[in-house]
Amino acid sequence: MSSLMRWDPFRGLMRMQTDLDRLFEEFFGRPMLSPEREGVRLPSVDVSETDTEVVVKAELPGVSRDNIEVEVRPESISIAAEMSKEEEQKEQTWHRRERVWGRYERVIPLPAEVITDQAKAKLKDGVLEVRMTKTERAKASTARKVKIE
Fold first, then answer.
1. In whole angstroms, what is the distance from residue 100 CA to residue 126 CA?
2. Which domain covers residue 20, as residue numbers?
3. What residues does 108 pair with on adjacent strands?
4. Is the pTM of this model over 0.90?
5. Could you please report the per-residue DSSP string of 50-96?
């Protein structure tokens, strides 16, 4: 029995956007601009998980801790930061300006549900580390390897 799928004229455009995003990510190694808002830099992140916690590390070079906002939800974490542009000096002639300034932001889905009020964050050498304790339900539902008999 075959199933019918409703025609969506925007499905092709959305697939093309996804393919282009993947192409740029593979070529440059990481996404630089948010598809939702141009000019917003996405910090590179690592997300790892142990039996009891989820750990997120984000690169925020040159950003002071006062300019970073972290919001933890049971299923995601939002990291936002502001990096100020250096004032140009009139006696300088710029030959190259590649450093990024402006607002950094990213929402990262978490692999397990966490307890929001137990999250702890620290910033060291431009790397933000957020440790979040898993809920009891998430701890219990951790994947287990099954031996094949």
1. 14
2. 12-40
3. 77
4. no
5. -SSEEEEEEE-TT--GGGEEEEE-SSEEEEEEEEPPPPPPTT---S-
> For residues 102 and 109, what is the distance between their CA atoms, to the nearest angstrom?
23
User: pLDDT by residue for the chain (149 residues), tens digit each?
Assistant: 556 667 777 777 778 877 887 777 666 655 544 444 444 567 789 999 999 999 999 998 888 899 999 999 999 999 998 877 766 667 888 787 766 677 878 899 999 999 999 999 999 999 999 999 999 888 777 666 788 88
Q: Residue 67 falls within a domain, yes or no?
A: yes
- Sheet of strand 76-83, all strands in order from the earlier edge strand to the far edge: 68-72, 76-83, 102-109
- Residue 6 belongs to some domain of the structure: no
What domain count does the chain have? 2
Q: Any idea what the Cα angle at residue 91 is, between residues 88 and 97, rounded to 5°?
A: 45
Distance from C-alpha of 128 to C-alpha of 133, rounded to nearest angstrom? 17
φ/ψ of 85, rounded to 5, equals -80, 135
Q: Tokens 């984000």 — which residue? A: 58
Q: How far is 59 from 64, CA to CA, in rounded Å?
A: 12
